[in-house]
User: Fold this.
Amino acid sequence: MLFYKAWIETRVRFLAGLVAAAVVCIFYLEQHAWLVSMWAADLQNPHGYHMKWMPLGIHEYGWYLWHYLYDNYLQQVWALFAILFAFGGLIRERNGGTVLFSLGLPVSRRRWLFTRLLVALLESIGLSLFAVLVIAVGSAAIHETFSLSQVLLHTALMVAAGVFVIAFGNLCYTLFPGNYLSLILTLTLLGAPYLWLQTYMQHMRYLGRTPWIGYLDFAHTMAGPWQITWTTTPWMALLVAWTLTAFLLMATVAHGDRLDY
Amino acid sequence: MEIVLTTNSSHPHRFFATGSISICWKAWRESRGRFFSALVLLASFVVYAVITSPGFLSRYNTRFPDKTLLYSVYVWTGLFHYALQGLWVLGAFIVALGGLAREKTTGVALFTLGLPVARRNLFLIRAWVAWAEAVAFGLASAVLIPVLSAFVGESYPFFQALAFGASMTAAGLVVVAFGLFLSEIFEGEFTSPVAGLCTLTAIFLGYRAHTLRGWNVFDVMSATTSIDPKTQLLTGGFHWFGLTICFLISVVLLGATHAVIQARDF
Amino acid sequence: MAAVIETIELKKNYGNHEAVRGLNLSVNAGSVCAFLGQNGAGKSSTIKMLLGMIHPTSGGGSIFGHRIDEERESLLIRQKVAFVAEDKRLYDYMSVGQIIHFTRSFFPKWNHALETQLLERFELPPERKIRQLSKGMRTKLALLLGFARGCELLILDEPTEGLDPVAIEDVLQIVVSLAAQGTTVFFSSHQIAEVEQVADHVLMIDHGQLVLNASMYEVQEEYRQIQAVFTDPVEERDLRLPGVERVKIEGHIASFVASRNVDSIVEHVRMLRAGNIDVLPISLKEIFLEKVRARS
Amino acid sequence: MFRKPNPSSGVPIYVQLKEQVRHAIETEALKAGDQLPGIRSLAETLVINPNTVIRVYRELEQEGVLEIRHGIGVFVISRRRSRSRAEEMRDAQHLVHEFVDTLKKQGLAEGEIRRLFEAELAGEIQRR
Assistant:
């Protein structure tokens, strides 16, 4: 029954998430032909930009999907909605006035929290699978073929590393409930390091160095290499992500139990 | 315990003045947290952009020697036309949220509506405070650029930064009005932010990738039409036409929101 | 009769405001115990502490033997206790039928007969959204969700607040019939008439401290209002007798509120050459006003 | 048969209920041997605390008005005793009539007589 309630509360956000993911996927599939032609033109004329990854982009559709979706925009949209799914819980009910009723039920605060997080995780998985569906249909429409297993592996990696984002979103909401403050604070506290680390690590990789801080670069962990095999999945980074998530969950549980309603 | 009834309504207009000041304070009090976090977000981004600019510029120029990148071009394309503008849009939108629809769910709308303040004033004051906050953190971060550039050994004309900031926040009224509009239609705590963020990011990114190449509000905000293509600094001529269009759209949006509030029953 | 609810030196501070100051109360099984107090006297804080919603600053308590400040045991408490909060708001997005179905899934001993009976007596339309219910209807729904849980202990925080007289009579009748079947009821209220009608034990709290803990029998049998007219003026000091709660002297007339051994007080007053002595019964309301006004 | 007691009348509910039961017996609404309603049902109909009903039944049992047979119910004591009760009431009324006349002859107004009686009665309730 708790799932039923948690699902009702986040139903609208889930639908908005589906729409957003569909828009992003369709948009970049539609752009594919135009971008490839532009890169080809650039490579031809000597003055144009000659980027290392351009030939890959032209010939490898799989790489294109990975670069524009799983390494950039779909990942960011998915993370944003994973955070939004994690918002809510008893704290939100406090200013709704129904928290006394909820706490009156023989349900421990932890069970409330874990139900909310589980529903958020399931919705995030649903969102990412829906994106795969849109890619499949879109790719067929633009007559491009891609390896479904790679895309599914990327989805799995994104979600596996993404649990950190869900836990972080929930903790942030518990600490700064309501009045949209939690939304902009989560975007700042999570967005800034996410972007900064991504550019910094790209620069480092360009120089060929891989400092230890690379493990905190969630953008890269969630994206992983564009061709995932058993050895190339960033296991260490995943481990770091999971331990951090565990810490976050413990903090949320401890804070949640201590709260007065 | 005797209760003494005192009714001195000698200065009715004074009540109006203090009334709207307290509504102002209430609007500020509600969005204060979001204002400061938006300010910090924008300021820290400007600091990051300016401090890493020398390294970036030198790297860029070594790789593409024939296309040297001017500092002013870097500032405009990187900040005013892309990242800073995007963050400002995000901040302005979130600051504009809240309002009577939101209060309805927390059950406090009846109290606010019980006050002797017309719904029109409640909304207009909140709109004005939201826009003032957006202008404040927009200008603050814009002005920060020339100040920090001195430290990094670059120079950026103070007046230019101020003009770009003013143009961004002035045309940005559309974004604030859009935020106000969404937050008054949807009661849910997350429906308006989610809907707003999705549409804004979709337009913002869509505009980048040539589908919406034509005129749109972001060009007006970054004053694309009145800058010198080479140095990307303002060339005096001010893009009045674009600004008036933006104000018109904002007025339409504010009018629509006002109508929604008047019609809504609490 | 085992005590169902027990608190030992229960304290709660909000910052430097002491909401509850060392409360020792006990409620016996099968009794209908009323919890009277002004607004802000600490009633809701105490009730929320009993159910683990607020963590006590110090001291503790137990319900059915389970400690209230222990998260795991508080869960066991909430399986045996039906609670109806002071804030009667429920999930707006659910309908009446949905929320009943939702709550029923947590309580194996859910009383379906009582549920249908109350649904029709309170005239609650099952498919209407809670958002569209009036305050009174929402209160009736919250009470239904509490009564139908089939629990041994019922804790109600101002149950009849905002209800029409017909609904109040229904609620009191349900409380009385549940009490007659052995359910213990602990309810806070401002309606002293209701308390006198339904309760058999009274607890009065003021500024976080217990000022009265007596059964309704004691209150009606032992509490008396004594008025004596003295020929020559008398000092308040020598009227400070054991059992006298409060003395008020206006010129020749002294009025006492006595809580016990009224006979010895009357004898003593007669010895002080009092002229006319009247001994009158005192209503719960006057006791409440005396207790609260004396301390404020 | 019984009216709901008035909680805000200042007179305790158990006193009101006792008077109602006595009145029902005196007006012979309840004849000897009749069974009174059960504790739970009376509590529910009058919407009062079950312990109050128990207390009224016990006190009336001590006064010899009712008889509680455990497990079966509560019954009015047999007719013989209650008839003499009615006669006692008539004699008492006669006595009061004469007494009031003598007080009036001494010049007391009706109000004063009534207050004297109430004070005496109140004092009498307290002494028992």
